[in-house]
Design goal:
With 261 residues, the protein is of the alpha/beta class. Helices cover 34% and strands 28% of the residues. It has a 5-stranded mixed β-barrel with strand order 5-9-8-6-10. Strand 2 and strand 3 form a beta hairpin. Helix 3 runs parallel beside helix 7 and helix 4 packs across helix 9.
């Protein structure tokens, strides 16, 4: 017979935004931004099960090597991503891999390439409420290495390094339409000269929460296209499949499972 008091206490611990309670999702999580990608990823795991859906947070679980793994969407941008990881940590998750998309910034980052983010430029606002000015937003080394080894084993073309995290998608894609156009373009060109690989919208926030909460966080991105190649007149087609990044993330979790936090 179920313990009614225990069930009631567990229900009270259900997280406000993600609608999940401790014990429902395991210790490992794959985090796409788009709710539409969640089931796609979960189907690649064993025994996929729908768990919850509230706001931008759609959640399934599945298994890798018999271990429960959560797949949850985080929506677009840092604030919603930070809420997702904060509440999943309260539910017992300690290892996270963001699977997302990006735009290439270096000329050798081609559509379809993977970008494994070792750190992120904090050009968004969320990280400022976690870390002091000048403190880097870094991925967990062991998760980053696991992603690299997974990509290598699968023969995938990838780059590892710094990415740019922003709040305004159109500030990047249409900077001339903004009153602060010159500042945006100057910063963008400076980041390119410093070797920044690609631009996206969530990594800096996720890394910052991970650092503060002592959780392991990594990030693998698919380059959809490269705006710098477009500016240079180089013909390219958008690459819209997430299959490579998903496979890379699953392989990394397989390698991380025997390890302890």
């Amino acid at each position: 017979m179920p313990d009614i008091m225990a069930l009631g206490a567990n229900e009270m611990r259900k997280q406000y935004h993600i609608d999940i309670s401790p014990g429902q999702v395991g210790e490992y999580a794959i985090l796409p931004g788009d709710p539409g990608r969640v089931e796609e990823i979960a189907k690649k795991l064993s025994n996929p099960i729908f768990v919850a859906e509230k706001r931008e947070y759609r959640t399934f679980t599945g298994e890798i090597a018999g271990k429960t793994v959560c797949v949850m969407s985080t929506g677009i941008g840092g604030p919603s991503a930070a809420i997702a990881i904060e509440e999943l940590i309260k539910c017992g998750v300690h290892t996270f891999i963001r699977v997302g998309t990006c735009g290439g910034m270096q000329s050798d980052v081609l559509p379809g390439d993977l970008v494994i983010a070792a750190a992120a430029i904090r050009a968004e606002g969320t990280s400022n409420e976690y870390l002091p000015f000048g403190y880097p937003a870094c991925a967990s080394i062991d998760v980053t290495v696991a992603l690299q080894k997974s990509a290598e084993a699968a023969g995938l073309r990838f780059h590892t390094g710094v990415v740019h995290s922003k709040d305004n998608f159109y500030g990047q894609t249409e900077p001339d339409s903004m009153p602060v156009a010159e500042r945006l373009k100057d910063s963008w060109n400076t980041y390119i000269r410093a070797g920044c690989l690609a631009s996206e919208m969530e990594a800096a926030s996720l890394f910052s929460v991970g650092l503060v909460r002592r959780a392991r966080v990594g990030c693998v991105l698919t380059a959809v296209w490269n705006p710098e190649l477009h500016k240079a007149g180089v013909s390219q087609s958008q690459y819209l499949s997430n299959e490579r990044a998903i496979a890379c993330a699953i392989g990394a979790i397989e390698a991380l499972l025997p390890q302890r936090k």
